[in-house]
Amino acid sequence: MRIISKVMILSLSIIVVLSGTTYSIFLESENHIKSATFVSKSFEVGPGKIASKALYDIEFPKGHIGVKSFDAELVDEDGKSVPLYETYLHHWFAIKYNENITMSRYIEQSHDISKGINYTRNDGACRGFLLPHYWGLGGESRGTSSNLPDPFAVEFGNPTNIPHGFKEKWLFDIMVIDTRGAYSRKGCTECRCDLLNLPKDFYNVTRDINDQPLSLNYKGGLFCCKDNLQCKLRKGFHGPTRKLSLRYKIRWVDWDEHQVPLKFYILDTTDRVRTNGSSTIHDCQAEYTIPRIGHGDSPHVKKANIPMKKGGYLIYGTSHMHTGVVNATLYGQDGRVLCTSTPKYGTGKEAGNEKGYLVGMSGCYPKPGSVEIKDGEILTLETRYQNKFRTGAMGFFYIHLAEQLPNILKI
Ligand SMILES: *[C@@H]1O[C@H](CO)[C@@H](O)[C@H](O)[C@H]1NC(C)=O
Ligand SMILES: *[C@@H]1O[C@H](CO)[C@@H](O)[C@H](O)[C@H]1NC(C)=O
Ligand SMILES: *[C@@H]1O[C@H](CO)[C@@H](O)[C@H](O)[C@H]1NC(C)=O
Ligand SMILES: *[C@@H]1O[C@H](CO)[C@@H](O)[C@H](O)[C@H]1NC(C)=O
Ligand SMILES: *[C@@H]1O[C@H](CO)[C@@H](O)[C@H](O)[C@H]1NC(C)=O
């Protein structure tokens, strides 16, 4: 329970919305790949407002499937894409859980999720339930690929893996920041504490990710971006509230012997890996601050050396970073480059190309079999940001690994 509440730091404890409403499902079929577009339940934002929500029981394809891609973006009530300078999509995370079937009715009616739910994390090693999601990005969502090449997919809904009496379900952990009229758009998107109407005793009662009292030096990040807080507005600014939703598209195949399963790992550049003698302990912090004092023009570099208990063949890699990112690179133990992810910045006004914002991160699709990570190999993750003061910076590397290759690709 303690472990769960730690994750939930990343917003899940805040508000529970059980969502099952969609307004459009669209199915097509192409090379046995099915695809559907869903719209999540809506949530309200107003100028300067933060919305940090957990939407339980979202629509997800049924049955034993292999997911090929999962893409999401923020839309308004008319289904129009919302640009980042109006409402900044800080993150959306898709998280899997098992629900006790006999409790389902109670949970639906009471919205009490304290019993009957077991969260099931990805294959990554962050402590407890930190960074548990299988998909999830932020402002770069529209320009970042999640496609997995054939015959690879991430397997879900396998009845033999779901405990008896439970049902596999999904939730969204979403945080958006409405920056219309904001005194400092950049400050609000970085969750600067001094721009938010925090409660008076905020620093006295808030505990950090290590369950220690939050330091007065904490200037911004996830802990200050709480649901329904208000970011400082320009004097006299008024604007309408509006209802937004996540529109998400999932592509999948029915699982069969032709599919090759992938493991999914999130590596965090803030992981303070250590050992207690017998076990490796991953101590992920999820976010970090780029200090005010720079070192000239060279980027700020953060590094972590992360041992991979189990290796595999790299099939796809990309990263989740924030505006200001220079690049992120994953190295093997011998120093070889496994994958570099580089940013795309917007140059216009339209959603997906917002000027000055990070609008996409590139990924790597090595020829399957060509990039192998050995069991026990220590990988090095390096994330680089421009050398300017920044709070709530993130540096996650996402990798999909195949533990075996299909016969046809075996060398
Ligand atoms: C499911 O919930 C019911 C009611 O609380 C409980 O009796 C049962 O043991 C639970 N089932 C499992 C498999 O945990
Ligand atoms: C669900 O989690 C509880 C603790 O939170 C644990 O006791 C139980 O064994 C778990 N059940 C399953 C089916 O994993
Ligand atoms: C917060 O803690 C400080 C120092 O311990 C104390 O002086 C102050 O009164 C506390 N403020 C509130 C609102 O609890
Ligand atoms: C190290 O951590 C593991 C996993 O938490 C635990 O099982 C083990 O007892 C610990 N060992 C020592 C020496 O503390
Ligand atoms: C990443 O950024 C560093 C620093 O600017 C640069 O030296 C390096 O070449 C970049 N790597 C890639 C692959 O773009």
TrEMBL record:
The keyword DNA repair does not apply. InterPro entries: Stress_up-reg_Nod19. Transmembrane segments: none annotated. The keyword Ribosomal protein does not apply. Residues 1-19 form the signal peptide. Pfam families: SURNod19 (PF07712). It comes from the Eukaryota. Keywords: Signal. This is Stress up-regulated Nod 19. It comes from Glycine soja.
